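Sequence design from tokenized structure. All designs in this work follow the same two-part layout: the structure record, then the generated sequence. An example of the structure record is given first.
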């Protein structure tokens, strides 16, 4: 008896790597002629793609699973499937604690999920994705997993060791994205800089960048670079290739050599200062984003003070900061969690307040400057975009205040590039006028 293809809704939590997995799953569902439901409560099958990175993310994933259980109990959905990192890490506990879920899958079990949905995984659809981002930008996941030993991190437990995707596959995937209208390609992985070591016996991010740059995207952006053993050969490629953004996200997590040693980051404060100095010398126009963890068990008040001094010296353009989350099965777990939540949040606040001033100073320098802006969205008649120095969802937005004579802002289109002049700034936003379409 031919059964009716299921109507599927995929709800994605966590990072852009999870987004890409869900986009591949949705493309596979479409290829199997499954209907895709925009709403969870109108689906036959709800698939939740979970995150298991830190405590707060785990809690959010569990809350969404319980929402799914409620929908099932109310008869709004027939089946509930859970996938992704939380499932990678705690499938047995979850099966025991939340048995209402029909099945649990890891982040690398897409064929099994398609089978559970009554379909089959179509291996010939390499690089095929159903984008969840606005159609003009997309993430390209160049590798999976991580071989680095960072003491606080559970990602290698969930995603396994580092596996680079072959360059030919990545080029094919990128070309498909370009055919779909993607203009900004955002490279992601757990550690971009490790690319190729497993597959090509060498760090080949520079070669990959050249091949992707030759495809002709307007912007190519790099996220998640790792500072230890940084492949400096990518710097001239970033400088010389017009369509590779002068932008680099390089989470360093801390600056104190003592804390970095305990975190097993394989780098010292001196080496970090040298590397950042080299990056700024090689690519003078670069904007650097980084991430810090504060409240790590072995972080003393002196370590924290030295981190603030480091920030004042280096003056990153963009900073994210997390309070330490004690994660079981990590090598830092036995250190306990001695620094209380209040003190951790006080340190988070102090880092963000200092960065607010630094970001404001950086943005003030942009007033009167003209630069290309990509419009991401138009909301109630106001257009919002970004410069090449700003990553979606985390960095400055450019808010259009008007346009030059002869140009009507009503003609602005999401996904299009315009020359803009910055007329005003805040610490995390830019304001200005449109000069012309590019
Ligand atoms: S580089 Fe370190 S922090 Fe990042 S995913 Fe790998 S182990 Fe985790």
């Amino acid at each position: 008896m031919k059964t009716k293809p299921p109507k599927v809704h995929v709800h994605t939590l966590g990072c852009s790597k999870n987004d890409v997995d869900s986009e591949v799953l949705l493309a596979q569902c479409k290829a199997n002629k499954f209907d895709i439901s925009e709403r969870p409560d109108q689906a036959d099958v709800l698939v939740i793609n979970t995150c298991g990175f830190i405590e707060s993310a785990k809690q959010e994933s569990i809350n969404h699973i319980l929402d799914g259980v409620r929908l099932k109990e109310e008869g709004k959905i027939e089946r509930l499937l859970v996938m992704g990192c939380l499932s990678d890490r705690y499938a047995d506990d979850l099966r025991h604690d939340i048995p209402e879920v029909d099945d649990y899958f890891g982040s690398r079990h897409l064929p099994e999920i398609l089978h559970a949905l009554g379909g089959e995984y179509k291996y010939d659809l390499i690089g095929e994705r159903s984008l969840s981002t606005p159609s003009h930008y997309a993430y390209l996941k160049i590798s999976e997993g991580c071989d680095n030993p960072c003491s606080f991190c559970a990602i290698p437990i969930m995603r396994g060791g580092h596996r680079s995707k072959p360059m030919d596959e990545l080029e094919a995937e990128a070309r498909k994205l370009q055919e779909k209208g993607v203009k900004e390609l955002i490279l992601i992985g757990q550690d971009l800089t490790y690319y190729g070591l497993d597959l090509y016996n060498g760090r080949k991010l520079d070669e990959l960048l050249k091949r992707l740059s030759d495809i002709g995207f307007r912007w190519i952006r790099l996220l998640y670079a790792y500072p230890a053993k940084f492949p400096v050969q990518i710097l001239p490629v970033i400088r010389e290739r017009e369509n590779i953004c002068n932008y680099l996200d390089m989470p360093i997590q801390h600056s104190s050599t003592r804390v970095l040693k305990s975190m097993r980051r394989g780098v010292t404060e001196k080496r970090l200062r040298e590397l950042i100095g080299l990056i700024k010398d090689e690519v003078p126009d670069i904007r650097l984003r980084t991430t810090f963890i504060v409240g790590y068990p072995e972080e003393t008040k002196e370590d924290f003070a030295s981190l603030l001094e480091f920030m004042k010296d280096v003056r990153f353009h963009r900073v994210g900061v997390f309070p330490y989350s004690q994660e079981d099965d990590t090598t830092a777990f036995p250190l306990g969690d001695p620094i209380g939540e209040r003190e951790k949040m006080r340190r988070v606040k102090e880092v963000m307040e200092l960065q607010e001033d630094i970001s404001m100073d950086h943005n003030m320098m942009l007033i009167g400057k003209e630069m290309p802006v990509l419009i991401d969205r138009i909301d109630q008649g106001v257009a919002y975009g970004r410069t090449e120095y700003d990553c979606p969802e985390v960095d400055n937005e450019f808010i259009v205040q008007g346009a030059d004579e002869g140009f009507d802002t009503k003609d602005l289109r999401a996904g299009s590039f315009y020359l803009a002049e910055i007329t005003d700034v805040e610490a995390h936003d830019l304001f200005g006028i449109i000069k012309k379409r590019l």
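The chain has 13 helices and 18 strands. We note this feature because it recurs in several other targets discussed in the main text.
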